[in-house]
Specification:
Elements: H1 2-19, E1 25-27, E2 36-39, E3 44-49, E4 54-59, H2 77-85, E5 93-99, E6 106-111, H3 124-127, E7 132-136, E8 142-144, E9 150-156, E10 182-186, E11 189-195, E12 202-208, E13 216-224, E14 229-231, E15 238-244, E16 247-253, E17 258-263, E18 272-274, E19 276-280, E20 287-295, E21 298-305, E22 310-313, H4 315-320, E23 334-335, E24 339-341, E25 346-351, E26 356-362, E27 368-374, H5 375-378
Parallel strand pairs: 13-18
Antiparallel strand pairs: 1-9, 2-3, 3-4, 4-9, 5-6, 6-7, 7-8, 10-11, 11-12, 12-13, 13-14, 15-16, 16-17, 17-19, 19-23, 20-21, 21-22, 22-24, 25-26, 26-27
């Protein structure tokens, strides 16, 4: 019996060792800005640092699995965070949100910069560098997640946009805040959208995880139906990897608000890649977040926006759409249809558990809440 236990233990240890990122080291990562957050299925947190132009993989030692299927609701979120951080609610600004799929702990990247807001087009990363990571348990307990003495690894983004370049129409902002705009992890690979220092600035970087030295860099070009032209300077704002007709695609949303498919197989190093515009969801808006979820065995994608309601669309409709928008559209909408869902003021989204999507939402009274959206309610 002792021998059997020993063999089993050694086998389990070997599997654990294989699963661990061999490039990780223990210490304190030198993160300048907690710009973007994303988890993989193993509970590893990826942090996109726009100012430092790096992607960090951090093991938060948060891997106790939860089977919770209850809603999470936190009223007066900014007030509670302000009390924790010794400031006022009007200074609290949430940059991004991600849920650990193992523990269902929710993580927020936070700064004290909201009072700087002067335009509806500004993003949190334009205004301040997020330097605080907050953890919220499924029971609603809040604590600061210290990024000290943790296991981590990192890669640098090659040729990110220069920090000195001013934004063309956002007063006081530099393009460096958009060096990293979104991150997605899929099938052992990390995808990173943002702005490069190339002539065609819009970029997508890809890397295997665990990280290796090589990072593929691609410039992107898309046709913007509302603007009536091909564009290479606007970054992807939110995206998801998704298999369409047996091919991996990135479903990407841009400012004002085209939806584009990008063939993942074409993301070979130093290649210029054109996306296929399949929808125009409405101008005067920028997408904030996208989440893929299942309800009754069917996939749906939900998008939150700065000026539009929640947009729900079916990836099967994207797969069935054979056209491409290459001319200026007449009117407000074109291509793949969406279903509007009420959700005024919804900002960050994350797939929470089997029954709920988690969201931050600004209420009519000005309060920000962390709220759970029932997946059955979102069903079209």
């Amino acid at each position: 019996m002792r021998k059997t236990i020993t063999v089993f233990t050694l086998a389990l240890l070997a599997l654990t060792t294989l699963a661990k990122d061999p490039g990780m080291k223990k210490g304190t990562p030198d993160i300048v800005s907690l710009s973007v957050l994303e988890f993989n299925q193993d509970g590893i947190l990826f942090i996109g640092d726009s100012k430092g132009a790096k992607i960090y993989a951090v093991d938060l030692d948060d891997k106790i699995e939860s089977a919770n299927d209850k809603a999470l609701n936190v009223i007066d979120l900014e007030d509670k965070l302000a009390a924790m951080l010794g400031t006022t609610a009007d200074n609290i600004m949430i940059h991004d949100m991600a849920v650990n799929p193992k523990s269902q702990n929710t993580y927020l990247s936070v700064s004290r910069g909201r009072a700087k807001w002067t335009s509806r087009w500004e993003t949190p990363n334009d205004l301040e560098d997020a330097d605080i990571l907050i953890k919220i348990s499924p029971e609603g307990d809040m604590s600061e997640a210290k990024l000290e003495n943790v296991d981590f690894s990192s890669i640098s983004i090659p040729n990110p946009v220069d920090p000195s370049i001013q934004h063309r129409w956002k007063k006081g902002a530099t393009l460096r805040s958009d060096a990293i705009t979104d991150i997605a992890f899929d099938d052992g690979k990390i995808y990173v959208s943002g702005l490069s220092n190339e002539e065609f600035r819009a970029a997508m970087w890809t890397s295997a995880y665990p990280f290796k030295k090589d990072v593929n860099a691609n410039t992107l070009e898309i046709y913007h139906g509302a603007h009536g032209k091909w564009e290479t300077a606007s970054p992807v704002r939110a995206f998801l990897p998704y298999e369409i007709n047996d091919k991996k695609q990135l479903l990407a949303a841009y400012l004002c608000t085209p939806l584009v498919t990008i063939d993942a197989d074409k993301l070979e190093n130093d290649k210029h890649v054109k996306g296929r515009t399949v929808a125009e969801f409405g101008s005067g808006n920028f997408p904030i977040d996208m989440v893929l979820y299942q309800n009754k065995g069917k996939d749906y994608i939900l998008m939150s926006n700065s000026a539009l309601p929640l947009l729900l669309f079916d990836p099967a409709d994207v797969a069935a759409y054979k056209g491409e928008i290459t001319e200026e559209v007449e009117g407000y909408l074109a291509g793949v249809k969406y279903t509007p869902r009420s959700g005024t003021g919804v900002q960050q989204l994350a797939d929470y558990n089997s029954k709920f999507i988690l969201a931050t939402q600004r209420l009519p009274n000005g309060k920000l809440v962390l709220t759970s959206l029932p997946k059955e309610w979102l069903y079209p």
